[in-house]
């Protein structure tokens, strides 16, 4: 085992070998092959090229060196083309702070049965007078920068669950094709993360329409990992065990505390007030987020969509059961 795999469990190392074609005997050679390609893109400023950084791109592309380099180039090109998004790209930026404290994104402390980190988005909590979509996207990208430092997550990946309960047509009208394309480019095409599934829950008809609109921007592999569950939580539980989920999704865990992840990033000086004094992460030189902060911090009550869980099926007081009782697509 090379020092680049230090801290990984034997099970995860074996998983990386079987699923990602990771071979510790030629790891440095694989990394150098990607690094040697940098000279072919003089138009891009590669701000970080150390072994550990390049390794995450190789893992995201199953050690296909050419594909890993393309992803690495797109990562930095995306940041060059969207400079305003990455100015003051840290947790104490005012826009990112507001999004984090409003629960964008939510991050569960425990992982699923496959070792994947579960991210949550409660769409109805988007107060458009308080948070721009761009700041929410920045908070999500920053959170991924923090999480991807964990080598286990580089290998096991992530799950995203979006609860569309009470998300209004007016809110949806702000999701224009241009900003949705920006999000897809940032998450699908320019970030070294393995997404095992994106799960829509309680989506109204106009979210179906939006999904149809963005389909051309999605890779086939991404489409196969998007599930539209409607109000049927049984189909969600077939893919993510209830023991891994909070009660909002019919799980056995307590309701999700919206301030959990914000407290993790902002540290012990986190405050519910609008002004903060604590400076935390710079995404280009980020350290591991301390899970102990999540356990030590006191819960913060937060507005959330109101749902009733009945016999494994999520119902809303203002709408009937959805016709979408099965996932639209299945994993590879």
**Quaternary state, please?**
single chain
Q: Could you tell me the radius of gyration in angstroms? A: 20 Å
Shape: globular
Helix content: 25-40%
Low-confidence stretches are 274-303, 305-332
Beta-strand proportion: 5-15%
Main location: cytoplasm
InterPro entries: CRAL-TRIO_dom (IPR001251), CRAL-TRIO_dom_sf (IPR036865), CRAL/TRIO_N_dom (IPR011074), CRAL/TRIO_N_dom_sf (IPR036273)
Protein name: Clavesin-1
Keywords: Cytoplasmic vesicle, Endosome, Golgi apparatus, Lipid-binding, Membrane
Written description of the protein model:
There is one protein chain. With 332 residues, this protein is an alpha/beta fold. Helix content is 38%, strand content 9%. The chain has 14 helices and seven strands. The chain has helices spanning 10-20, 27-36, 51-60, 65-81, 94-101, 133-147, 151-156, 169-172, 177-189, 205-214, 220-223, 233-237, 260-266, 291-296, and strands spanning 106-107, 117-122, 158-163, 195-201, 226-228, 308-310, 313-315. The chain has a five-stranded mixed sheet with strand order 1-2-3-4-5, with no helix packed on it. A two-stranded antiparallel ribbon has the order 6-7. Helix 5 (94-101) packs across helix 6. The longest helix is centred in the N-terminal third of the chain and has 17 residues, at 65-81. It is globular, with a radius of gyration of 20 Å. The chain starts with 9 loop residues before the first helix and ends in a 17-residue tail after the last strand. The model is unreliable at 274-303 and 305-332 (pLDDT under 50).
